[in-house]
Amino acid sequence: MLDARFFRRWLTASTALVDREADRLTELDSAIGDADHGSNLQRGFAAVSAALEEEAPGTPGAVLVLAGRTLVSSVGGASGPLYGTLLRRAGKALGDAPEVTPAQLGDALRAGVAAVAQLGGARPGDKTMLDALEPAVAALEDTLDSFEAARDAAEKGAQATIVLQAHKGRASYLGERSIGHQDPGAASSALLIAALADAAR
Ligand code: ADP
Ligand code: MG
Description:
Helix content: over 70%
CATH topology: Serine Threonine Protein Phosphatase 5, Tetratricopeptide repeat
CATH superfamily: DhaL domain
Strand content: under 5%
Shape: globular
Structural class: mainly alpha
Number of strands: 2
Distance between the termini: 13 Å
Radius of gyration: 15 Å
Bound molecules: adenosine-5'-diphosphate, magnesium ion
CATH class: Mainly Alpha
Number of domains: 1
């Protein structure tokens, strides 16, 4: 079972990975965007970690809703509302249960990914964060509790965005010139799923 502490560990691990990889994320965004993805998420997750410490929410759902709300209010770029929606929607799906199963987390993330797709109008293959999130959630659904499988699927999905042309977000303005670069949001999504595997260790 996964309790509020597990979810706080997940977000703390996400903050650490985003910090460590911020320069790489910004470099990816400088190739096909506006070079702010690393700093956007660094600011957002620092605010998430601070909010979690201050409010210490006691259920998995409340942890995710607070994290999502904090990302929306602290990240200016497109990724703030999108990641905020992912976490808020997943948190709402978990309700106020004190502990949840990995399968329930998989269902909640499925709902979160659907909400991201609805908000941004993107589908897998459009070279966005969905290209890492969607396979990660599918892997979780298949294996039920293998966060390592989800991490590997997300990383593979992120790498696979290199050959894609962007159809959503800033990178889509480049048309065919977006081909040959990894999508920064897919790269950061892979980090968030890797943090999930870290939290489960
Ligand atoms: P901005 O593009 O506003 O500068 P960021 O650089 O923080 O915001 O985030 C860019 C990332 O957001 C992209 O790499 C992509 O993965 C994701 N993204 C942008 N638009 C969409 C969308 N409509 N649907 C899903 N993801 C998107
Ligand atoms: Mg950007």
